[in-house]
């Protein structure tokens, strides 16, 4: 594929594994593509406060965070749509009333509810290990979510989205009923089991954010490539000229992608970059 491309990469399940491990081949793919003149941007559910130094050190030309709530291009904030303080208060009170562990996702950090380390451990480790896989006995919540802050203020005005542990699928259904003013979803790592729910800003997605980033770069959507592994990534793949699904991704995204590469932990990102002529 000749010419400079704009590449949008999901993070979890695409750049890093759900155990939060960065394959050396993925790091190499990103560095070499940028050295070849292509622009590479993260397009993730994570907020800036959840980007560990190892990931940031790869070098990116921008970041879409919060599944589209935040768009940064070459150091400039292009768009930032926040959960309102009133919505945040309602979410915190709702989760507390139901006894559901949660954390607030902000560019300033990840702020966990009281007892999250203990109460969310089963869900967090199931998310990291994947369905049917044994959970390492010595694995902790911090291994999966190393940047969580405990004891921070929970009524906030800087929140991109909120994730909470599902005690059952009914929690998700009740969240949809109780918060019609918000985008409510579920997530769960490999296999996309409904382990967590999340509250986000209504009316945003990765596709709209990608278009805003491309416009800010003065580029053309015809030069865009998206790589992801989950249902939430499908709008991004549909918006871009070329859509790539990870082999370890869910069946829905693999069915609609233009190309399916290898698994995230089996050099999948490197294989995709080679296939597309980015490296």
* Percent of residues in helices: 25-40%
The assigned structural class equals alpha/beta
Helical element count? Answer: 11
User: What portion of residues belong to β-strands?
Assistant: 15-25%
- Rounded to the nearest angstrom, the radius of gyration is 18 Å
H-E string: EHEHEEEHEEHHHEEHEEHEHEHEH
> What's the story with the biggest beta sheet?
8 strands, mixed
Gross morphology is: globular
Number of extended strands: 14
Average predicted confidence as pLDDT: 93
Query: End-to-end span in angstroms?
Result: 10 Å
Parts with pLDDT < 50 across at least 5 consecutive residues: none
Question: What strand line-up does the widest sheet have?
Answer: 5-4-3-2-1-12-13-14
Question: Would you kindly provide a written description of the structure presented here, covering whatever features stand out?
Answer:
This protein is of the alpha/beta class and 279 residues long. Helix content is 32%, strand content 23%. The chain has helices at residues 24-35, 53-56, 85-98, 116-119, 121-129, 141-144, 169-178, 206-217, 234-239, 251-256, 268-275; strands spanning 6-9, 39-43, 62-65, 70-73, 76-80, 102-106, 109-112, 148-150, 159-165, 182-187, 196-201, 224-228, 242-245, 259-260. Strands 5-4-3-2-1-12-13-14 form an 8-stranded mixed β-sheet. It has a 6-stranded mixed β-sheet with strand order 8-7-6-9-11-10, with helices on one face. It starts with 5 loop residues before the first strand and ends with a helix.
């Amino acid at each position: 594929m000749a010419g400079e491309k704009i590449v949008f990469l999901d993070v979890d399940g695409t750049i890093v594994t759900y155990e939060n491990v960065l394959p050396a081949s993925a790091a190499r793919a990103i560095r070499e593509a940028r050295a070849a003149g292509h622009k590479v941007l993260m397009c993730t559910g994570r907020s800036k406060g959840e980007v560990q130094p190892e990931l940031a050190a790869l070098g990116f030309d921008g970041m879409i965070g919060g599944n589209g709530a935040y768009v940064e291009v070459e150091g400039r904030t292009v768009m930032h749509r926040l959960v309102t303080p009133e919505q945040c208060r309602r979410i915190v009170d709702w989760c507390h009333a139901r006894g559901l562990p949660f954390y607030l996702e902000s560019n300033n950090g990840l702020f966990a509810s009281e007892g999250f380390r203990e109460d969310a451990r089963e869900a967090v480790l199931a998310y990291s290990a994947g369905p049917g896989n044994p959970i390492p006995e010595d694995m902790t919540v911090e291994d999966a979510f190393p940047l969580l802050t405990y004891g921070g203020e929970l009524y906030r005005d800087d929140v991109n989205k909120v994730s909470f542990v599902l005690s059952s699928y009914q929690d998700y259904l009740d969240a949809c009923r109780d918060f019609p003013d918000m985008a409510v979803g579920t997530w769960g790592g490999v296999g996309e089991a409904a382990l967590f729910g999340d509250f986000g800003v209504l009316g945003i997605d990765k596709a709209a954010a990608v278009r805003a980033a491309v416009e800010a770069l003065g580029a053309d959507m015809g030069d865009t490539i998206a790589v992801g592994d989950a249902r939430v990534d499908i709008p991004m793949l549909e918006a871009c000229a070329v859509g790539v699904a990870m082999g370890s991704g869910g069946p829905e995204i693999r069915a609609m992608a233009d190309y399916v590469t290898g698994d995230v932990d089996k050099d999948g990102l490197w294989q995709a970059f080679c296939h597309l002529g980015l490296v």
